[in-house]
Design a protein that fits this description.
Blueprint lengths: L7 H11 L1 H16 L1 H23 L3 H11 L9 H12 L1 H11 L10 H16 L5 H15 L4 H19 L1
Length: 176
């Protein structure tokens, strides 16, 4: 039986749960339990789509050209993108003008040319998800974008991306 106060397990659990890392870990474990491998696969596929968009920002290759180049250049076996990654990449490219307009409108004081290519690829991907993917909650798109920014971007970019995407969501919800 657990005691409310004084139980070492309860005190330790409370301390760990108050730490954001453990909250995120618990949320991830719950998602894994509820959604299985689909949650982890979508995260990997989203990351692939981001990397393809980032590469596309330098050479403007199509998805097929990027995949072909990866197949020839990689020393290890290149893991082919799934349907979700392809859907995201192609959706961003198809709606790039509208997406860039939303990014420019909501990045007050920043022109697209001043935003790093990493941040721009992440913003484009998340904006596409927010505006065009009804099966993905806005909060998931923002959280995943922030995680990509923490992994690939500079330290302040995650807050910058979070702010712009939050503003895009507000505008979207105002219009609905």
């Amino acid at each position: 039986m657990f005691r409310a106060k004084g139980c070492h397990f309860c005190v330790a659990l409370k301390r760990y749960l108050s730490d954001g890392f453990f909250n995120n870990l618990i949320v991830a474990l719950i998602k894994q339990f509820l959604f299985g491998d689909e949650f982890l696969n979508r995260r990997k596929e989203r990351e692939k789509a981001f990397l393809f968009l980032f590469e596309n920002s330098f050479n403007n290759y199509s998805l097929d050209e990027i995949i072909e180049a990866k197949n020839h250049d990689e020393k290890e076996k290149f893991e082919q993108p799934g349907e979700f990654a392809k859907r995201l990449f192609l959706g961003v490219k198809e709606n790039e003008e509208k997406i860039d307009g939303l990014i420019n409108k909501n990045s007050i004081g920043w022109q697209k040319s001043r935003i790093s290519k990493i941040a721009l690829a992440i913003l484009r991907l998340a904006t596409y998800e927010i505006m065009f993917c009804e099966d993905i909650p806005d909060s998931v798109s923002i959280n995943e974008a922030v995680e990509l920014a923490k992994k690939y971007g500079m330290s302040e970019e995650s807050a910058f991306i979070n702010g712009i995407l939050g503003s895009i969501c507000k505008d979207k919800n105002k219009d609905e």
